[in-house]
Write a structure and sequence with these properties.
- The complex is a heterodimer of chains A (261) and B (258).
- Chain A is α/β, with parallel strands linked by helices.
- Chain A is built from nine helices and ten strands.
- In chain B, helix 2 runs parallel beside helix 6 and helix 3 packs antiparallel against helix 4.
- The chains are: A alpha/beta (261), B mainly alpha (258).
- Chains A and B meet through helix 2, strand 6 and helix 3 of A and helix 5 of B.
Chain lengths: 261, 258
């Protein structure tokens, strides 16, 4: 039986009189990499934010190891935040802070006893491989879109999380940085970190995902191991995956071969 | 039409309940501010710098001008009725009790009220608020409380500053019309000044500061998805700020006299 880390039970989210998630029930397995796929506007980002307890559901429950995330006490919620990281689709860096401050704030919040030397060391360790050390004192507005996304990714992993939520992590990032980022995600996953990623990227999915959730119009069509989805006879799922992965939508094509690169 | 009216009433009631809950949360978090680990302390200092320090020039100019106008008007009219000494009472009523806090509030609404609503609205749109939540920071305690406390404290400090410059400015103008010793001027002023005048001025400053900051923060957080909402909430922050301050001014003045 699958050991689920986060589980959504009959979750409905209504935003601006539009139903973003409609009675969604899905479980994300612990220690594995899940890719959430679906056409634009299908509710993928909303699903990720609800699973990360950033947006509360209007109806239904979000459980982590069986505990309702919405009812966690302040201490337990802070612990959940310390052990999880979230990378936003649009980076969502704090514009009035420097890159250094963007990365230092989570450490200062969760480890107030850490000295500035220790914090600096951790930030250098993260920025150096991405060639962003020169940007330490810059504001996010001075960075390119790709660099902003990298910093958002680094902010998500700065506390070495046990759960990593990634919202379209690979868009706008150049090939060289992308390879480094993918390696870091893979390493985290190998160390036991649970990855939950919304993505359109076949390469990322092929590289890390061993569990797939397919969404359409705010409803889950399929949620299973990649291999199982591969054998799915559900034409809607095949169609969505081929659209999402920018491939020709031919029903006789085994589109999930792409995921087995 | 009845359905539309019903929906408007229901929306207004919903907004009122939401605002009440928000105010309660803000008050609770403000009370806990000093006891918490202070990652928000820097935000408070920045708010004080922006709202109080950077507004000192314009406040000095307005208060000096107001003090001067009162003296010029008073000295030219009051002696005709044998009430020359009333100028000190009028100075205190107008500067300390009434226009000092109110004009200071207007300056703060125009500068900080719009800035807070716009900044928070932009942060909602760019998902910065969600980013704070994702790392474990409560946006109310980190973003709202320092702004609330910063604006309220600034309002008090600037009102005191306004009173000082207003009364000092009137003395300077008096020198050009009927020169008077500084000591005599302030002795006359203090002879008509009561504790209630100072208390009224400070109470108004605290209430106005709280109303301005609460309105601006509430409106800023009300932005949902679109950048076109930002100028709308900024206008609402200004409009509601003015209305609430004038209403509160009337209520406090009534309490003082009745």
């Amino acid at each position: 039986m699958m050991d689920s880390l986060i589980e959504l039970q009959s979750v409905t989210v209504q935003a601006q009189e539009h139903i973003s998630l409609d009675e969604v029930s899905v479980a994300f397995p612990a220690g594995r990499s899940t890719a959430i796929m679906g056409p634009s506007g299908s509710g993928k980002s909303m699903l990720l934010k609800v699973a990360a307890a950033i947006i509360p559901p209007d109806f239904g429950r979000v459980l982590m190891h069986g505990k309702n995330l919405q009812r966690l006490g302040q201490k337990d919620m802070l612990e959940f935040r310390r052990t999880s990281g979230f990378m936003f689709q649009d980076a969502a860096l704090w514009e009035n802070k420097t890159i250094y401050e963007n990365l230092a704030l989570p450490i200062q919040l969760h480890f107030p006893d850490r000295g500035s030397g220790e914090i600096k060391k951790r930030i250098h360790e993260l920025l150096e491989p991405m060639n962003l050390l020169d940007s330490l004192d810059l504001r996010p507005a001075a960075l390119s879109e790709g660099e902003r996304k990298i910093v958002s990714f680094l902010r998500a992993i700065v506390l070495d999380p046990e759960i990593l939520f990634l919202d379209e992590p690979t868009t706008s990032i150049d090939h060289q940085l992308l390879e480094k980022m993918l390696r870091m995600i893979k390493t985290l996953n190998e160390r036991g970190c649970t990855i939950i990623a919304v993505t359109h990227d076949a390469h990322l999915t092929a590289m890390i995902a061993n569990y797939l959730v397919v969404l359409r119009d705010g409803r889950v069509l399929e949620a299973a191991d990649t291999a199982e989805v591969r054998r799915s006879a559900n034409r809607e799922v095949i169609e969505i995956l081929s659209q999402v992965l920018s491939q020709a939508a031919t029903y006789d094509t085994d589109i999930l071969d792409l995921l087995e690169e | 039409m009845i359905a539309k009216l019903g929906k408007n009433v229901s929306d207004a009631f919903g907004n009122f309940l939401y605002a009440t809950g928000f105010l309660f949360n803000l008050a609770k978090e403000s009370a806990l501010f000093l006891r918490r680990r202070q990652v928000g302390f820097r935000v408070l200092v920045m708010q004080l710098l922006f709202t109080a320090v950077e507004a000192m020039g314009i406040i000095a100019l307005i208060s000096l001008g107001l003090g001067a106008v009162i003296v010029v008007q008073g000295i030219s009219i009051l002696p005709k009725f044998g009430q020359g000494k009333l100028i000190y009472t009028i100075l205190l009523i107008v500067i300390t009790r009434e226009l000092g806090p109110l004009l200071t509030a207007f300056v703060i609404i125009a500068r900080s009220g719009t800035a807070i609503a716009t900044e928070l609205g932009n942060m909602v749109i760019s998902h910065e608020i969600e980013a704070y939540v994702s790392v474990g920071i409560n946006p109310i305690s980190y973003l709202a409380v320092p702004r609330f406390l910063g604006v309220t404290l600034s309002m008090v400090l600037l009102t005191i500053y306004f009173n000082f410059f207003g009364l000092f400015g009137s003395y300077v103008v008096t020198q050009f019309i009927t020169p008077i010793q500084l000591q005599d001027y302030f002795q006359n002023l203090l002879s008509v000044m009561s504790v209630a005048d100072i208390a009224s001025s400070l109470i108004k400053a605290v209430v106005f500061g709280a109303l301005i900051s609460f309105t601006a923060i509430y409106q800023g957080f009300k932005v949902r998805v679109s950048s076109t909402e930002i100028p709308q909430v900024a206008i609402k922050a200004v409009g509601q700020g003015f209305v609430l301050c004038i209403l509160a001014d009337a209520v406090i003045t009534l309490i003082y006299y009745v």
